[in-house]
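Dear Dr. V.,

Thank you for agreeing to look over these. As mentioned in my earlier message, I'm a first-year student in the group and I'm still getting used to reading structure tokens, so any feedback on how I've presented them would be very welcome. I ran two proteins. I've put each sequence directly above its structure. The first is here:
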Amino acid sequence: MASESSRGSRASRSTASTQRRVLSCHHGEKAVLRVSGTKENPGRRFWVCVRYACGFFEWADQEQEEEDLEKARLRKKVSSLKSRLRACELRLKIAVFVGMVGWALVYSLWLQNSGGRPQHQWLL
């Protein structure tokens, strides 16, 4: 019976990272998160209805697995973004170097064509 009531009891999951999913049983009561103190499941988290006679029960392990998967996905994304950032920084450094070398070449060619001295008075 507990599995029947837990199937249809999932409400919505909030997109905010600070909020946990909210469960409600088949009669609409909000489920609460408890921690097991039994010898078989010490410290294991589970959801129950505030009315124990309702029979609603669900282990919170699945929620932890989903959070772990989300963390792994975000770590992979951060790693990918960092590598893209390093590639962009390298391209920028190369572009700045090529630009500076280009300007130096243009300036040296200009000085060669002008005989080593500025041709305009404003360049003195």
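The second protein is here, in the same arrangement:
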Amino acid sequence: MKKTVVLLVSTMILGVSASAMADSNRWNQDHKDRYDNRYEHRYDHREQPRWSNGDRGHHYGQRISLKRGERLPSEFRSNRYVISNYRTHRLYEPPRGYNWMQVQGKYVLVDSKYRVLRVA
């Protein structure tokens, strides 16, 4: 009789502890799922964020090829690229109506409509 009671009590204790462990594991799993879903966007690199320049045309660091007769891209058509002291850059004097411009490390001779005459 004693063995039956001890066996019954130990079985009940084992059952209660097993269900408690399963319950705590389920809570951790639910918590982990919620955490993963909440911060999922941080690690998903398949689509570009809205604030990224990845899908725009000319972004920083993109190299362009300049050839004679082509027009200079619009992002380089400002006075900040014009070289006024051409002799310090070892360039010859530009003809009337032309300017030397420095674009991505290259010297470009362009006319008033930003057509490339020479790339040095």
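From my reading of the second output: The helical segments are 2-38, 40-43. The longest strand covers residues 99-103. Does that match how you would interpret it?

Kind regards,
E.
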